[in-house]
Write a structure and sequence with these properties.
Number of domains: 1
Largest sheet: 5 strands, antiparallel
Radius of gyration: 33 Å
Strand content: 15-25%
Shape: elongated
């Protein structure tokens, strides 16, 4: 076997494409383009994940605000003023907005930025107004004879007032409960 002699700047293994050859500029560019294509394919998944997390958070907050209002109405006696439908009206409606300073819902304020709004609707029914599908129809007007009113329905709708943007619009949740005499 003959001895191999190396001279400065000349590597016979690299010249022959052996293990010391390295990458050419074209190979590096092709690998970079492939990596870019893979990363660009993953970016929409991150944006979708961010959007879904925001939507989930808003649905949770809306549900919490609605549930707290429904829970306030459940223990009230059926003749409580907050469950009373105004005379001659088919329903009682209470519109409120979330006050960011106190984190409580208050009467609608004009000119104040609103993050969340809540509408509570109370309707009263006779048991004959309950159909097989579980729907209530034909609400009784306020002032109906007490012996005709058997059910009170409370519907709480909570809505985020966030404008539509890159991550979607605000969310809305509606909760309802029915109380019987």
């Amino acid at each position: 076997m003959e001895p191999v002699t190396f001279t400065a700047g000349h590597d016979p293994a690299a010249a022959a494409g052996g293990p010391g050859a390295g990458f050419s500029l074209i190979e590096v560019l092709v690998a970079s383009v492939l990596l870019l294509v893979v990363v660009m394919g993953l970016l929409p998944l991150f944006a979708l994940s961010l959007s879904n997390n925001l939507a989930g958070r808003e649905y949770s907050v809306a549900s919490q605000h609605g549930r707290s209002q429904v829970e306030e109405y459940v223990p009230l006696p059926l003749d409580h003023p907050e469950l009373t439908v105004p005379l001659g009206q088919p329903e009682a409606v209470l519109d409120e907005v979330l006050d960011p300073a106190t984190d409580r819902f208050t009467a609608v304020a004009v000119g104040v930025p609103v993050a969340w709004s809540r509408t509570t609707t109370v309707r009263q029914y006779n048991v004959r107004d309950l159909y097989d599908e579980g729907r209530l129809v034909n609400p009784l007007p306020g002032g109906s004879a007490p012996n005709h009113v058997h059910l009170r329905e409370v519907i709480v709708e909570v809505e985020s007032e966030r404008e539509a943007g890159a991550l979607g619009a605000g969310r809305q949740v509606a909760l309802s409960t029915v109380r019987g005499f």
